[in-house]
Write the structure tokens for this entry.
Amino acid sequence: MRVGIIGGGVIGLGIGWRLAQAGCAVTLFERDRAGSGASHAAAGMLAAGIETEPGERDLFTLNHQSQALWPDFAADVQAASGLDIGYRTEGTLRIALTRDDAAKLRHELAFQQSMGVALEWLTPAQAREREPYLDAKLAGAVFSPADHQVDNRKLAPALAAAFSKAGGVLREGQKIERIEIEAGRARALRTASGLHEFDVIVLAAGAWSGLIEGFPPLPVRPVKGQMLALQMNPAAPLAHHVIWAPGVYIVPRADGRLVIGATVEERGFDGALTAGGLLALLDGAWRALPGIEELPVIETWAGFRPGSRDDAPILGASGIDGLIFATGHHRNGILLTPVTVAAVTETILSGVSDPRILAFSMTRFQKRQQAA
């Protein structure tokens, strides 16, 4: 089977790797460099528990299915690529800095526990036992042992290496101009270099998925996020866990980088960094970890999450034979990589939609329009 994949982020690379392992002839087209989009900009949090919100039952289920796959997926990627991906299992803390924060956090905790999420309430003293440099006026915290992290900037190169070692062909700097559809079937991809024919085409172009021509516009938009990184002493880091504080998250890396994010902005593809955006992030992080005040800023950047109409992914059958969707993951792209890769790969190889992703097909938008 000849498979063409549009998009060289972790989703596209992962699907390509598994299909190549299964014996498919896979060519992946990336408009820039593999892993240079949202996969590069992300923080790598695998926060299926701490991010559980009301009204997201289907997404909750998918997130937790993917979280359960992460340990084996991480081991497989490292074994196939020979590269470390920075998978860490210390867990995640969500902290409250005021009494109002604590009341809100307890309310969220009760809901999340009702959904079966394993979480633990910590007193301020217990929280500072885990993270001694948290603010002294801490009002409480929730600990989520199953919410881990991965270094997304190591994950993407590892998946690219695994894909190539499995026999996949990676074409970077190749913008897809159009998906050619004949008689209701996706037949080929058109680039500046010509026409490339395939039996199956996978659209995994992230925030750029809605710009591909050849079929009705896909409801995927860019959701801008500004971020920055500070440099800690790796021998004496200020934090060991992923920390969620009001309005900000803080992610420590093994090399001493401290990633701080992220704004949520509807600005299209405007990648400008703003004083207000960075100030809000630094202020939120400083209120949680006052010790960051003396740390050097080593990087600032903005990325574009692929958001759908309901901010849940668009996965599986497109309604056009031979065209499969794997996009729209919004803030959960890294978390959802294992289940997306497994389910989309199974859908392509079997010819039957994987039940794990049925709730995330494009048809959900059509049903809602008809119901309205």
User: Anything to note?
Assistant: The chain has two domains: 2-83+152-219+309-371, 92-147+222-307. The radius of gyration is 21 Å. The first helix runs from residue 10 to 21.
